[in-house]
Write a structure and sequence with these properties.
rod-shaped; 1 helix; 55 residues; mainly alpha
Length: 55
């Protein structure tokens, strides 16, 4: 018995798959950058008490 599967993939499906895989990498990077900016803004506004506890 022959076990072979023929799956035809269009170029649009390949393009959408590539976009989806790129988005899985880009989206977390965007979130990390936004959280970094928010953290820096909050530290500038309210001060950073935890940075130098020995001073």
């Amino acid at each position: 018995m022959e076990n072979s599967f023929n799956i035809s993939v269009t170029s649009a499906q390949v393009f959408l798959a590539l976009l989806f895989q790129m988005w899985l990498i880009v989206f977390p990077v965007i979130i990390i950058v936004k959280l970094n900016r928010l953290t820096r803004l909050l530290q500038e506004r309210f001060g950073a008490d935890e940075e130098d506890p020995h001073v």
